[in-house]
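agent> Task received from the user: take the single chain below, predict its 3D structure, and emit structure tokens. No templates, no multimer pairing.
agent> Plan: (1) validate residues, (2) run structure prediction, (3) serialize to tokens, (4) report one or two observations.
agent> Step 1 OK, no nonstandard residues flagged.
tool_call: predict_structure(input=
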Amino acid sequence: MTRLAFGVIAGVLFGALSVGLMLPMSFPDKPRALTAAFASRFAIGLLASTAQLPMPPWARGLLVGLLISLPDALVTRAYAPILIIGSVGGLLVGIASAKWSV
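)
tool_result: status=success, residues=102
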């Protein structure tokens, strides 16, 4: 599977997982919050798989996850859950993309 195809699939899965985790929570504008979370996590899945950086795949995924999650964490002030889920998700996508994509 190509890195792009893997990234799209990983992004959709990571985005859906994040939205699923957020469904029981309450937000002033829930549809907007869920859409933003999906978009952010989709970007992590896509970029952690396709970015070409001079570092191991796990580090690339971790960096991408951290950098994409940082603006959301700063705006919401929910640092730990957003940064941890984004970083761990990026790390796992980076490892998986090195293993299962070309």
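agent> Step 4: summary for the user.
Residues 79-100 form the longest helix (22 residues).
agent> Done.
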